[in-house]
Design goal:
heterodimer; A: 309 residues; mainly beta; 5-stranded antiparallel beta sheet; 9% helix; B: alpha/beta; 10-stranded mixed beta sheet; 11 helices; 21% strand
Chain lengths: 309, 347
Amino acid sequence: MPSDPNHVLEFPGGYTRSVGPVIGRFLSELRDGRLVGVRTATGRVLVPPTEYDPDTGADVTGEWVEVGPAGTVTSWAWVPHPRPDHPLDRPFAWALVRPDGADTALLHALDLGVLDPGADPPRHLKTGLRVRPRWRAERRGEIGDIACFQPEVTMINAPTRLEYRVRGGRALDRFLAGIAEGRILGHRCPVCGSVIVPMKGLCPRDGVPTTEEVEVADTGTVTTFAVNNIPDPRAPEVPFVSAYILLDGADLTMLALVAGIPADQVRMGMRVRAAWRPREEWGPTMANIRWFEPLGEPDVPFERIKDYL
Amino acid sequence: MTREIAVVAFVQTRHEAEDGGLSETEMLAPVITGIKELTGLRRFGFTCSGSCDYLAGAPFSFVAALDAVGAWPPISESHVEMDAAWALYEAYVRLLHDDVDTALVYGFGKSSQADVRKVMTAQLDPYYLTPLVPDQVSLAALQARAYLERTGAKEDDLLAVAARSRAAGRANPYALHLEDPDASAGYAVAPLRSYDVAPVTDGAAAIVLAAGDRARELCEHPAWIRGIDHRADAHGLGARDLSRAEAARIAGERAGARDIEVAELHAQFSHEELMLREALGLGEDVQVNPSGGPLSANPIMATGLIRIGEAAARIHDGTARRTLGHATSGPCLQQNLVCVLEGDTRG
């Protein structure tokens, strides 16, 4: 490929071509924002239309059919690095699109949105994808009157934001005050004896107030867990693991992140310890504990955690 | 009975990946000189060439190439603006007229002078396709996707074609010698990776056809053309089943593509070899592209002729009895030519 041509083959101003009645009709309708096809003697609808039936060579009928504009992708090719003369300057697909009501397909560019150069094809790009044209505002009777195709709308993104000022309540405030000092506090139920962490000032089982404060260890056991593939502000790297952790000395599990181990190696019964942030960063917040990390002790048998799932 | 016509000589350049500084005519001249020496012929009953003005960017560039042939006193000459395999077809038909006995066929191209991916958009439908500038590799990738999805073949199957072609090409002194494909190469246009695309190549090739006894005089083991046919699919890419090489299938059927030992296929992209194997009914026992094929050297406009030349060479050297040369033209295997060659049966 010459980077610095010393010879150019060009028709200045472009090459003028007459289009004839069939292609002319298609391009005129395109300029009006409509997609049409022509019917063959055998009843097939050709889009884009030709003067002849590609199967038989016979003249097409004079019957025009409005098709699409929605259609289905019948094959596609992914361009990770568009060339300067391509219709789009970001990664895109070439697609054969069969408009609804047509029996043949039209080649065009398919825009999948903003993607970095070199991007892999998005997962939802598949043969069978439903697409529609994106029309240019200024149309001139050219195939480029359709700027490109784009997927049909299957999802919206709804703004979701409400604002609050919340108070944790007395029990939680006390719990967080402990956390601010690097202590994990709970209450023991006067009826069942369970240690509830974090305490709520009530035993959820017995429905009685609790007041007896107990400090529990920052080590515990994973009882169950989930591998998350959607990033979270607290865990921007995916996949991350969230787990129920039964702290030593507690009788209720606590939801926390698990790190320091590949997601696919986390196990039920795995022993873990809290990874605290540096003391100078501590405040009355659970963020003091970054996550839990493997302790390296033997796993706890399922029998001993089966009631804490 | 139809006149028997054979490929009696085949010469090609040592193809180059970069512009060697020769003009097209200078590149072609040694090939013409070589085939004249090989056959001992100075003049031919008919001459036909295949080339593409758009590669050189000059109208009637093929006329200049006649300087390499020598056209005085005036010769009977023709040209196709296609791969020279179609020039061979024209020469074959010309020889069937019975009044001349020999024909020179040649093709040449310097792809290195232009951006082939873009040049090839000039051959497309000017109303619906060319304005979008869908380059050659993008269109091939559309077909590759259609083929992979229909058959369940995987991208690894494409890699295997590229690897085998490149290994074979390294054993062919005329081909480019390309390294094993890098399996981690990124996509050129998905699903095609850079190694699935034939390399830019400059080169030329020539064949001499001769009829009947003249063929036996000129060549110890003439490669007789037992069948030759070419067919075209619909022009509109969306008007045909892109996952199949239907025109190749029909051409193969009509040319008698059966009992083939060696097939040289004009597959410029890895998936095209798989599609052509299917269309031509070539089983696992058929040796495909022992020369390395177009994935190892693709001098456009000579590549298809070289397939017939390589298929004939296997008969000339006695290593095969019945071979097949295939050529294609247009986007996505639209036009296909199949030539079935056979050696004399020795008793």
